[in-house]
Amino acid sequence: MIFDHIKNVGLYKGLTPAIDTALDYIANVKPDVENGTYFIENGVKVVVKIPVA
After folding, report:
1. Range of the domain at 27
2. Is 53 inside any structural domain?
3. Which of 16, 32, 34, 44 qualifies as a FRET site for 52, CA 20 to 30 Å off?
4. pTM listed for this prediction
5. Could you report the per-residue pLDDT of 25-53, keeping only the tens digit for each?
């Protein structure tokens, strides 16, 4: 797990295929994505939890 600012994304690209997959997902996720757990390629699990205002 990486905790950082999105402006530093370039520091992490290329470290592993799984990190690249996760970063690509974050860059392309739609704003209306539903809360839930998604299993995507390279063994990456994405957990989306958008707080209710």
Report:
1. 7-48
2. no
3. 44
4. 0.75
5. 988 999 899 999 999 998 999 999 988 87
